[in-house]
Amino acid sequence: MNQENNSGSAGEADKYFRLIAENLTDMIALVDTTGRRLYCTPNYSFLGDPEILAGTDSFNNIHPEDKERIKSIFFNTVSTGVGQSTQYRLVLQDGSVRHIQSQGIAVRSADGVVEKVIVVSRDVTEAKDAAEKQRALELQLFQADKLNSLGKTVSGVAHELNNPLTGIMGFCQLLLRDEAIQENSRHREDINTIFREAERCQKIVRNLTTFARKHKPEKTFLGLNGLLEDSLRLQEHQLSLHNIAVARELEPALPKTMADFHQLQQVFMNLLGNAQDAMARQKGAKSLSVRTRRIGAFIRAEIADSGPGIPPDCLEHIFEPFFTTKEPGKGTGLGLSISFGIIAGHGGRIWAENLPGGGARFSVELPITEDASPGEKKAAGAETLPLKGQRVLIIDDEQCVMDVTVRILRLLNLSPDTARDPATGKAKLEAGNYDAVLCDYRLPGLSGLELFKWAKALKPELEKRWIFISGSSGGEELLKTGRPVLAKPFTFEALQEMLGAVLKK
Ligand SMILES: Nc1ncnc2c1ncn2[C@@H]1O[C@H](COP(=O)(O)OP(=O)(O)OP(=O)(O)O)[C@@H](O)[C@H]1O
Ligand SMILES: [Mg+2]
């Protein structure tokens, strides 16, 4: 720094260069060829007093894992005169780590020998953290995308499995009504076992779609009590493993709602999972309380835990996507935001509060939709409905589903007729009069929904007699028609109830 410039003498230039160097945000050190610091700008103070730093080994504070690499770069600059840019970590006195980006510049003597090195450094810790956060976010979005395609695959598989499951469960129930079987306790027990195992498969299929997170909403009439019981059962093992006592207060005659089973189960599984995670940090007796009740035109489910509660400054953020207080890899912070979307999509609301005695309580409120629940309304009286001789057309391309439905209808004293494809269905609807139509959503060539629209235009009275059967697709669309949807695999009772309600009208 001793060259002349326009503004004055060499001493003055020195003064200006020093002023510039010491007021830059970058740090500048002058190092001899052994790595000893000769001078440091004041912003090196995070490593100690820059005055005292002069004379110390500049490799001292480098992270042990980076030290050898940095030494070799430094001595390479000394021997070749070519400076390099690199990143490494510095360890501060309090043990914290900073990420530093440095550029070495060789200073040569008059005869060309490298006699010093100027090192210009910048603390890039914040930028690096931001880049890592961005990468994590991208990873999460990638994961969400992966889950989305997995969801599509799983819902396809679910649909395929629901057809054979309908057959297995339906034929089991038919066999159980057979007199000979009723008299043979061993056969009865075996068939009961087959039925229970098929029910297990049904649950696995449901859970798969639940965990795949995304699938088309498939709204059916359901009660929250059963759903909560199912969700608790799935977590039974975890709950007892962590010594969590579960208190249930489920209102017995709770009205039902029109909802997507998988989506609501996803909500409750997350609420139960969160409560367990919260209680893992808790000392003393752990308790989980699950309560349902009717509040005006709504049904409410409450899940309360005895954990530490939600820190007040987090309370307003917990429903935001990616908000999590869990350690990396443990939580994605998506659970509550997905739940929020699901409940809002059902016309309900979800909120959280801390309890005065400690712990957190999450409440879910959903509208009661009794009027549109023909299948459920007459549950108790279904047996007494005058189901005799009415003509029911079944339109389904699945042989097994068709067979079991025909058998159940006969047992109910109804008169079934069948169509394995939409064209036959159309011909039969044109030619005959039916008291009810059971129509699959997914048919070859023409969807159940299109067939419904066609039939409605042909004979308006058919609208009130239409029941959709659905594997795992078409939920939203079917719902818009206002017609009941029988979800596969269905039970004898579910079919009977739904037909009962439609035939009564
Ligand atoms: N019962 C609870 N008690 C205390 N804090 C809770 C409770 N439930 C949720 N929280 C807080 O809300 C945050 C967000 O929950 P959310 O379910 O959205 O994400 P997560 O559980 O962290 O991750 P993910 O559900 O995606 O695995 C949690 O990290 C936690 O801080
Ligand atoms: Mg969660």
Features:
single chain; 505 residues; alpha/beta; Beta-Lactamase; Heat Shock Protein 90; Rossmann fold; 3 domains; 5-stranded antiparallel β-sheet; 16 helices; 45% helix; elongated; disordered N terminus; binds adenosine-5'-triphosphate; binds magnesium ion
Write the layout of secondary structure elements.
Layout: H1 10-22, E1 27-32, E2 37-40, H2 50-53, H3 64-80, E3 85-91, E4 97-108, E5 114-123, H4 125-177, H5 179-183, H6 185-211, E6 219-222, H7 224-241, E7 244-250, E8 257-260, H8 261-280, E9 286-295, E10 298-305, H9 312-315, H10 335-345, E11 349-354, E12 360-367, H11 374-377, E13 391-395, H12 399-411, E14 415-419, H13 422-431, E15 436-440, H14 448-458, E16 466-470, H15 475-480, E17 485-487, H16 492-504
Helix pairs in contact: 4-6, 4-12, 6-8, 7-8, 8-10, 13-14
This protein binds adenosine-5'-triphosphate and magnesium ion.
Describe, in plain words, how this protein is organized in 3D.
The chain has helices at residues 10-22, 50-53, 64-80, 125-177, 179-183, 185-211, 224-241, 261-280, 312-315, 335-345, 374-377, 399-411, 422-431, 448-458, 475-480, 492-504, and strands at 27-32, 37-40, 85-91, 97-108, 114-123, 219-222, 244-250, 257-260, 286-295, 298-305, 349-354, 360-367, 391-395, 415-419, 436-440, 466-470, 485-487. A five-stranded antiparallel β-sheet has the order 2-1-5-4-3, sandwiched between helices. Strands 7-9-10-12-11 form a five-stranded mixed β-sheet. A five-stranded parallel β-sheet has the order 14-13-15-16-17, with helices on both faces. It is built from 16 helices and 17 strands. The N and C termini lie far apart (100 Å). A hairpin with a 5-residue loop joins strand 3 and strand 4 (97-108). The protein folds into three domains: 10-123, Beta-Lactamase (2-Layer Sandwich), CATH 3.30.450.20; 217-372, Heat Shock Protein 90 (2-Layer Sandwich), CATH 3.30.565.10; 382-504, Response regulator (Rossmann fold, 3-Layer(aba) Sandwich). Residues 1-7 and 371-384 have low confidence and may be disordered. Helix 4 (125-177) packs across helix 12. It has 505 residues and is α/β, with parallel strands linked by helices. Adenosine-5'-triphosphate binds at residues 270, 274-275, 278, 305, 307, 310, 314, 318, 323-326, 331-337, 360.
